[in-house]
Amino acid sequence: MGQYLLKNAVLVNEGLSFNGGIFVSGGMIADVFDYSKADDCAREEAVSDAEVIDLGGCHLCPGVIDTHVHFREPGATQKGCIASESAAAVAGGVTSYLDMPNNNPPAVTAADLAAKMEIAARGSRANYGFYLGATDYNIEEVARAGASGACAVKVFMGSSTGNLLVSDPDAMRSLFERSPLMIAVHAEDNAIIAANLDCYKALFGDDIPFSAHPAIRSAAACITATHKAVELALSTGARLHIMHVSTAEEVDYLAEVMHRTDKITAETCVQYLTFCDEDYERYGSQIKCNPAIKGSSDRDALIRGVRSGVLQTISTDHAPHLPQEKAGGYLQSASGIPLVQYSLLMMLEKVREGVFTLPMVVEKMCHAPARLFAIERRGYIRKGYFADLVVFDMHKPSDVAPLSRCGWSPQTEFSSTIEYTFVNGVIVARSGILTDAQTSGRKLTFAR
To answer: Are 224 and 298 members of one domain?
Structure first.
């Protein structure tokens, strides 16, 4: 494992941006240098036997931690697998990920998680963690989730794969009462969605327009389920994380709830900050995802929610589907967007537009994921932390070929370039091109 002296960068970390450098040794951050401090400059000068990489004023921040991905292994590796999707991740500056349990078979036991970890140990380029899926029938597994090494427990309150939909109210309350880990919820109400779909089938038959997606998987479906999850969490004391928030109503409601408790947090995803219902005309099935991308007023509210702190993390809900699975009409097209390679680049566009600051992006995509999920020694540029780092040039446009096995993404042209990605002190990508370091990722550990 090499030693690197990364010089002449703009470090973005813990709310600050400053000119400096980093010494990487043994896979760890061995020292951090702030060029405004004479002692730091002297320490950097004293570094020897390290490969010097002059970054020429590029930005350097902690590697992105994507806490919401679907890498499709086991069971759907024709769309993506841990090796292919982690390759896409590191090319885009994502150095750690937390993968969802809706596989085939679903990850609902400790043995299922162990099998996924074994696959990742053989082929993941990024660091990895896995959710345990909750069902009506695995409450005892949920109660032992901490010992299984799960990052959290995932509850689907809306339709999903196989038997991962928790539909029994008693089972739902029991898992909220007994889970030792954070409960991460997909909050959509199935009954509302089904009724909306019936209405649109009556109007359009099989030719439902994609623009109807936010009316079918409506704001009411989201806020109704979010209310139920929050009420359960408040009455049981469970630690709750609402995933992929997509509506203004949820932002307003969660703002009020978070004044009463610090045990409820929430995320949104890059697609909800980028697209709105006006974009269905251009992108059609490519931006069909669950929950649906909704109106411009929802997008604006989500942006406000990120700025205010109501939405603490930004992820992708990366969900690869083959082009033929996205083809056809509304009823035939699969829901999901492959975004893990592009999330940081998409957020850098928002920085260039003045929507967010760089320190805010780093807080939401690096620091907060590590803090909320209690991930040990990652997500920050700190001495003694793992050297998971990303270097990007905000003045160098890029046209980025998709590395996900599905081979597509709605946007591939950006105003910035990911120059380097380091995982555990290993250079895994240069200018978006993968290096030979194929299995540099490690199992994430959690401080709990």
So the answer is: yes
On whether the CB atoms of residues 219 and 249 are closer than 8 A, the answer is yes
**Residue 205, domain extent:** 64-372
Q: Would you place residue 163 in the very low, low, confident or very high pLDDT band (cuts 50, 70, 90)?
A: low
pLDDT over 70 at 159, yes or no: no
| Kind of pairing between the strands at 389-393 and 59-62 | antiparallel
Q: What angle do CA 210, 215, 220 make, to 5 degrees?
A: 150
CA dist 95 and 148 (Å) reads 22
pLDDT of residue 162: 52
Q: How many domains does the chain divide into?
A: 2
| Co-location of 25 and 133 in the same domain | no
pLDDT at 439: 74
- Residue 448 predicted with pLDDT over 90: no
Cβ contact 128:86 at 8 Å: yes
The three-state DSSP-derived secondary structure of 10-40 is EEEECCEEEEEEEEEECCEEEEEEECCCHHH
Residue-level pLDDT at 432: 86
Which alpha helices (H) appear in 339-410, and where do they start and end? 343-352, 358-362, 368-372
Q: Minimal CA–CA distance to 426: which of 144, 7, 25?
A: 25
According to DSSP, the residues that pair with 284 across neighbouring strands are none
Residue found under tokens 């349990």: 101
Question: Secondary structure of 49-113 in the HEC alphabet?
Answer: CCEEEECCCCEEEECEEEEEECCCCCCCCCCCCHHHHHHHHHHCCEEEEEECCCCCCCCCCHHHH
For residue 166, what are its two tokens?
């928790």
Residues forming beta bridges with residue 354, ordered by sequence position = none
The pLDDT > 90 percentage for the chain reads 94
Structure token digits, residue 207? 């030719």
pLDDT digits (tens, 9 = 90+) for 369-383: 999 999 999 999 999
Q: How far is CA 413 from the centre of its chain?
A: 20
**Strands 413-414 and 398-399: what pairing?**
antiparallel
> Does residue 441 sit within a domain?
no
Q: Which of 134-148, 153-167, 207-221 has the lowest mean pLDDT?
A: 153-167
Q: How confident is the model at residue 168 (pLDDT cuts 50, 70, 90)?
A: confident
